[in-house]
Amino acid sequence: KTFFPEEISSMVLVKMKEIAEAYLGCQVADAVITVPAYFNDSQRQATKDAGVIAGLNILRIINEPTAAALAYGLDKNSGQGINVLIFDLGGGTFDVSILYIDDGVFEVKSTAGDVHLGGEDFDTRLVNHFIEEFKRKNKKDIMGNKRSVRRLRTACERAKRTLSSSSTANIEIDSLFEGIDFYSTITRARFEELNSDLFRSTLDPVEKALRDAKLSKADIHDIVLVGGSTRIPKIAKNLEEFFGGRELYRTINADEAVAYGAAVQGAVLKGDKSDTIKDLLLLDVAPLSLGIETAGGVMTPLIKR
């Protein structure tokens, strides 16, 4: 049986709806859904469709870094104008946004990113490393065996998480391929070496966002880490060094910040009058140029990114 991506996404949303209803003890009908800032229009529409399939009324689609900035703004509760850089590295996508926050107004100055960079790419580097090791040790290639590769990927993801807090991680898989057990160890240093180019590439969108916002590194007041992959020490270290040894803002939960911000936006849209959010205003940018197709199939931008 084959499924459309929207159908798979809707299954996740249905499960989330059930969890929310069980926790709240009431029906949930409306939703604010977040997407990577660099999603194009068709990706956003597909996300909306998934929500409709799941039986939700989509109040708004908002960008993940923007949602995280809402969480940061309420956590920090600072009145005066500040520039904040949101560094959002998740499982499959990467976004950088710069916002100007002043007295409840959240204005996005620029956004940059890569919709194909995240934790899964780091897992893949580990998987390929261990496939080669298995080949060296046992003269057998497991690449063609989907089940073996999937089991190895699961173990690699676990090892990656371990390496965020330990200097070494063990891989132990019984009967990985043709009855052969696979046991190995990887150090944090080796993991960083395998992914060094990917880790470095996360700084390119940071530079681009700064350029687009016409700001220097010194103009940024806070650097906020969002997304599970920012727990990788080397990624945080590279970012700290890029900003001249500045300390990163880690007070908000990297996993929950986006959902927290989306909930705040939902409350605003539903007319919540709480003191903390009643004057909240969100001003976002178009991350990609919007245009029309003209003669010869040329895209003519009407609204530049």
Automatic annotation (TrEMBL):
Keyword Hydrolase: no
Keyword Protein biosynthesis: no
Coiled-coil regions, chain positions: none
Pfam family, one: HSP70
SUPFAM superfamilies linked: Actin-like ATPase domain, Heat shock protein 70kD (HSP70), peptide-binding domain
MF GO annotations: ATP binding; ATP-dependent protein folding chaperone
Keywords tagged on the record: ATP-binding, Nucleotide-binding, Stress response
Domain of life: Eukaryota
Cross-referenced InterPro entries: ATPase_NBD (IPR043129), Heat_shock_70_CS (IPR018181), HSP70_peptide-bd_sf (IPR029047), Hsp_70_fam (IPR013126)
Family (UniProt): Belongs to the heat shock protein 70 family.
The name this protein goes by in its record: Heat shock cognate 71 kDa protein (Trinotate prediction)
